[in-house]
Design a protein that fits this description.
The chain is an alpha/beta fold. It has 10 helices and 11 strands. It folds into 2 domains: 100 residues, Udp-n-acetylmuramoylalanyl-d-glutamate--2,6- Diaminopimelate Ligase, Chain: A, domain 1; 118 residues, Udp-n-acetylmuramoylalanyl-d-glutamate--2,6- Diaminopimelate Ligase, Chain: A, domain 1 (3-Layer(aba) Sandwich), CATH 3.40.1390. The protein is 36% helix and 24% strand. The strands form 2 sheets. A 6-stranded mixed sheet has the order 5-6-8-9-10-7, sandwiched between helices. α1 crosses α10 and α2 runs parallel beside α3. Bound molecules: zinc ion.
Length: 266
């Protein structure tokens, strides 16, 4: 199988036509006509992920976030991006990025998170230029904000989550947007869709206040954890349709580490 055949398989799941105009999706590094036998999946093509791919002899990395976003003015080792791109080229590793195309796609990041929480009657949250971003749906039964947060923390394998609203608040209808979805218009859309709680990442201080002001509970389940959960699903999908060796990275790409107060007095 060639790299371009793998690209076709991914684009069946996440058509580039769904991507936002500002985005940069597609085969961003490599030769579509090269043979592909092994693929590594990760949220980002970090130094660790590229080293892992090179050590494992992978021919391709599939990520959610685009490795190249803006113009590249020089390709040398003086920048982190330059070092990454050179290492990829030296090791003959292609990189495909499915970003907002995967967010908007049926069965993409937002649907994966909705499934994980067990939402039913799932609908889109916000109309964008090429599709619906975010999702709204109902839990099987009423629960508390605290119980839903605990369920989410376990399902996403994360250390903790920040919430607004009383932990005892009863919640049934859930809005969500994976990654960075804490814009006020998204929160208002969730409120207008009668959501009790909105799950996203990258929530700023005043956006958390805004959620409180409009009476919407908020769970900040982080940018990394709301999206990295999709990569094993995308990996399984490509494995099933290509028959190639497909593996998810061993690395945890979350830059933030959670440090809690040390109460031992040390
Ligand atoms: Zn993201």
């Amino acid at each position: 199988m060639l790299v371009k055949d793998v690209v076709n398989i991914i684009e069946q799941l996440a058509p580039p036509s769904l991507a936002e105009g500002w985005d940069n999706v597609g085969l961003l590094v490599g030769d579509g006509d090269a043979v592909c036998k092994k693929i590594l999946f990760a949220l980002d093509a970090t130094d660790e992920v590229i080293a892992e791919a090179a050590a494992a002899g992978a021919d391709m990395i599939v990520t959610h976030h685009p490795i190249i976003f803006k113009g590249v003015n020089a390709l040398n080792t003086s920048t982190a991006l330059g070092r990454r791109l050179l290492k990829l080229v030296k090791n003959d590793i292609a990189v495909y990025c499915a970003h907002t195309s995967l967010d908007i796609a049926q069965g993409g990041t937002n649907d994966i998170l909705a499934q994980l929480i067990g939402l039913k009657d799932v609908q889109g949250l916000m109309q964008t230029e090429n599709g619906m971003l975010g999702r709204v749906g109902d839990l099987e039964e009423k629960t508390t904000l605290k119980a839903l947060t605990n369920k989410l923390i376990k399902a996403l394998g994360m250390p903790a989550a920040n919430v607004t609203g009383s932990p005892e608040t009863e919640v049934l209808r859930v809005g969500l947007c994976t990654g960075s979805g804490a814009d006020r218009d998204f929160m208002l859309a969730a409120k207008n869709a009668l959501c009790d709680v909105y799950i996203t990442g990258d929530v700023k201080y005043h956006e958390a206040q805004f959620a409180q002001d409009i009476g919407l509970c908020l769970i900040d389940a982080t940018h990394y954890y709301t999206e990295s959960i999709a990569m094993p699903r995308v990996c399984a999908y490509v494995r099933e349709h290509s028959g190639l060796e497909c593996v998810v990275t061993d690395t945890n790409g979350e830059s933030f580490k959670t440090v809690t107060a040390d109460t031992t007095g040390e």
